[in-house]
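TA notes, week 10

Several of you asked for a full example with nothing omitted. So below is the full record: structure tokens for the whole chain, then the designed sequence directly under it. When grading your own attempts, check the secondary structure regions first.
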């Protein structure tokens, strides 16, 4: 999703902005731009496509004096990916960058056009700068004009604005879209929409809350909260480790992140399991008092981890569990009762639809829990309780290790709840903990396995579609496998429960229909095998993923013979991730930044 950077100081402003935007590439973008104000004059550059295009445009631009600068990577929501629609957007003497959506932009735009303002872009963002300059003409100073402008905007936003009227300040506002400000040892100020661009520059950062607005100058950071009360910055130390954001010799970030899953799952388990029990120090056991149902709410990959969790909560903890797609849940007038624990899942903690459902649950008085990878994110700050997944920075747009750590957390959480409710015996809990300890080994990528999948992938570059099929919690894994393939190969794929194929989808079966069959030895093997045989009999091309050889399969990827289906789940997860990766590589696609997609979906 769109990314923001800003800087005020005497260093090389252009390079700081471009480096910051580079660190935001993983969020997905289709254009980028910067605006620098120095000695009362603006310089602005925009480019469509990759940042290298912007770097080429700015190669002769030198910044060696005090300056204020803002930059942006755009993912199109209003208007096509063009230079005119790229940020920053210009008024008469001001520039603005913005993440989010201004919901009342059409009304504001019409009013401004009636007053003779000409718009250059199709974006909602451009109304902000024109509305500001309209207010500036009748305000005492630029800050009053900015404050008035913010009060007139409806929607979600993170905004940075610079103006010749006060050319040594950056004005900011945050509501529903992430933004933070950092300082370095020289007290220079840096803005960004996530931590990553500030690592290596800043020592301390302040995360803005919804409703915060204000300005920074060379000497001060002035923040007002949603109640218009001035507040002091709450600085926190910023990590200095940038190594995890590099590819470390892998071809793609996604490949690196698949291989990292063994380590990050070990981190997720660290300190949370003993020999006999699951320990969540971040949880108060009273969180579950009076709870008759768990409602899980998420989007995309996180939704698939939630579906997986529903099987485990009901099987191990014997608690009623429902799963909701956040973008649907927020608009269907749902029944929300206070005996429900409302759980949201998000890699970034900023997913707009999921965040809004969390706000709904809070407003309805429900207890809330967030499963998230990013501390200090909006969801983490809003929910009653948080469990962090510890996946580290994930730069590949198609999520891998975030899913793996989410499922790991849910497995532990279902056992934690089983302990509280005594729905599993002590010996059963101990057995499950031994299985949890084995997960890092189960997801370790074997060179022979990866090489087998590389060779196999060349047979799956055409056809009229894929079915990923599985039973029980291998059905959510089938959904996730199909999503991975869609995201990065652009081939049509669906995830289906194996037993549902005969209820319609089997009509598509022919040699050009590829079926990726998940056949765990330890869970409903014979029933799943029977469903695959039905497809094979109708001449569908079958690739079986199983520890047991299957003579009806055209291709076979053999997994290890694990003692439990949960370990089979995690190994098969790695297989479908690698299969999607290698098919995409053969098709020549940009694996890490697939078309039309964004890493952090901060608009609905």
């Amino acid at each position: 999703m769109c990314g923001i950077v800003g800087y005020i100081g005497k260093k090389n402003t252009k390079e700081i902005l471009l480096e910051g935007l580079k660190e935001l590439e993983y969020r997905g973008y289709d254009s980028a731009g910067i605006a620098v104000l120095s000695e009362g004059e603006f310089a602005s550059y925009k480019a469509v496509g990759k940042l290298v295009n912007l770097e080429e445009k700015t190669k002769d631009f030198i910044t060696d004096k005090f300056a204020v600068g803002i930059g942006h990577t755009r993912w199109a929501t209003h208007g096509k990916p063009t230079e005119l629609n790229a940020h920053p957007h210009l008024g008469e003497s001001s520039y603005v960058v913005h993440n989010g959506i201004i919901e009342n932009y059409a009304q504001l735009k019409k009013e401004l056009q009636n007053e003779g303002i000409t718009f250059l872009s199709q974006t909602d963002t451009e109304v902000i700068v024109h509305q500001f300059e309209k207010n500036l003409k009748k305000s005492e100073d630029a800050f009053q004009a900015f404050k008035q402008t913010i009060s007139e905007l409806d929607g979600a936003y993170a905004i940075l604005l610079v103006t010749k009227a006060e050319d040594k300040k950056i004005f900011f506002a945050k509501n529903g879209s992430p933004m933070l400000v950092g300082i370095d040892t020289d007290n220079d100020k840096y803005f960004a929409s996530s931590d990553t661009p500030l690592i290596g520059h800043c020592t301390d950062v302040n995360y803005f809350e919804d409703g915060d607005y204000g300005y920074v100058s060379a000497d001060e950071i002035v923040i007002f909260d949603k109640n218009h009360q001035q507040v002091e910055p709450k600085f926190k130390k910023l990590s200095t480790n940038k190594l995890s954001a590099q590819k470390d010799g892998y071809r793609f970030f996604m490949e690196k992140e698949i291989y990292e899953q063994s380590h990050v799952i070990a981190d997720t388990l660290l300190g949370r399991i003993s020999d006999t029990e699951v320990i969540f120090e971040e949880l108060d056991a009273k969180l579950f008092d009076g709870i008759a149902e768990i409602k899980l709410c998420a989007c995309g990959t996180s939704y698939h981890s939630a579906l997986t969790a529903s099987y485990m909560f009901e099987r191990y903890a014997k608690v009623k569990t429902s799963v909701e797609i956040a973008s649907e849940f927020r608009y269907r007038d749902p029944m929300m009762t206070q005996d429900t624990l409302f759980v949201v899942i998000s890699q970034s903690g900023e997913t707009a639809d999921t965040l809004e459902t969390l706000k709904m649950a809070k407003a309805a008085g429900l207890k809330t829990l967030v499963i998230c990878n990013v501390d200090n994110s909006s969801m983490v700050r809003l929910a009653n309780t948080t469990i962090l997944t510890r996946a580290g920075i994930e730069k590949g747009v198609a999520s891998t290790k975030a899913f793996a750590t989410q499922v790991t957390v849910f497995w532990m959480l279902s056992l934690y709840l089983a302990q509280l409710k005594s729905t599993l015996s002590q010996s059963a809990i101990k057995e499950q903990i031994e299985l949890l300890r084995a997960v890092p080994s189960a997801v370790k990528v074997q060179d022979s396995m990866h090489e087998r999948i590389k060779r196999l992938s060349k047979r799956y570059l055409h056809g009229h579609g894929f079915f990923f099929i599985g039973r029980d919690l291998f059905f959510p894994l089938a959904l996730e496998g199909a999503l991975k393939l869609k995201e990065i190969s652009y081939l049509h794929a669906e995830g289906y429960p194996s037993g549902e194929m005969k209820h319609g989808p089997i009509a598509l079966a022919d040699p050009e229909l590829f079926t990726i069959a998940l056949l765990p030895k330890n869970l409903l093997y014979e029933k799943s095998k029977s469903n695959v045989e039905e497809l094979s009999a109708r001449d569908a091309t079958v690739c079986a993923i199983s520890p047991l050889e299957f003579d009806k399969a055209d291709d076979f990827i053999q997994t290890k013979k694990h003692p439990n289906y949960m370990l089979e789940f995690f190994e098969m997860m790695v297989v479908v991730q690698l299969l999607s990766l290698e098919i995409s590589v053969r098709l020549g696609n940009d694996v890490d930044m697939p078309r039309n997609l964004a890493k952090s979906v901060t608009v609905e």
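The mean pLDDT is 92. Use that as a sanity check on your answer.
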